[in-house]
Design goal:
GO terms for molecular function: ATP binding; ATP hydrolysis activity; transmembrane transporter activity. The protein is an alpha/beta fold. Helix content is about 30%, strand content about 30%. The strands form two sheets. The protein has a seven-stranded mixed sheet, with helices on both faces. The relative contact order is 0.19. Bound molecules: adenosine-5'-triphosphate (ATP).
Length: about 220
Amino acid sequence: MLDVSDLACRRGERLLFSGLSFQVPAETLLHVRGRNGSGKTTLLRALCGLLRADAGSIRWRGETIRDLAEDYNRDLLYFGHLNGIKADLTGLENLRIASTLDQDPADADAIFAALSRIGLEGFEDLPTRMLSQGQKKRVALARLILSKAPLWILDEPFTALDVDAVDLLQQLIAEQVARGGSVILTTHQEVPLTSGAIQRLTLGEASDPVSSESTESETRH
Ligand SMILES: Nc1ncnc2c1ncn2[C@@H]1O[C@H](COP(=O)(O)OP(=O)(O)OP(=O)(O)O)[C@@H](O)[C@H]1O
């Protein structure tokens, strides 16, 4: 469970959000929404520990992410705008390195299978700079297939994907939630789940009311 309490972030002179509190339990997808510049990326980077919040606390399984440090990083898969892909390395090499950083590194067969599932069979040995934008993104997405991290934080993961890849990513997210994981993402795409719960958090709308339903909860901030 990720437990966020009274979080505030300022960028430059602007206070993007304050008093932000929410929890993301296992088997839950938190969909962060808001207009451009409302602070979605800032929030996700703070949740990953890449950016220091101005106030509040972020706890993972009861301990602050600052105290957990590397232990938190091992439980986390972060998918940011740059995708974490090295252009001079092949898809295979990128995934081998990414998976070595994980708690339970994947073997070559698993990496080939992941690249194949993501539609990159035959492209495994090309430097990723020779791939199209969508193919590069697919290499990054193959990390999700290999990941055993219980917490995924995904910033606009659907950008540059074609309909098949969108479909596959929706499946991967649903699988992560169904096996007891947590996912926090920003997207303009709907993400249907097969099981688990969806929470919604909208940034930049402090005056709006909080509403909730039994299967989905929605928070505006
Ligand atoms: N390094 C920085 N220094 C100063 N201000 C910043 C910095 N990074 C972001 N900002 C500002 O913080 C605000 C929120 O940016 P952020 O990227 O978190 O928004 P967002 O909701 O993810 O936007 P988008 O939907 O356009 O991706 C913006 O006004 C942006 O200009």
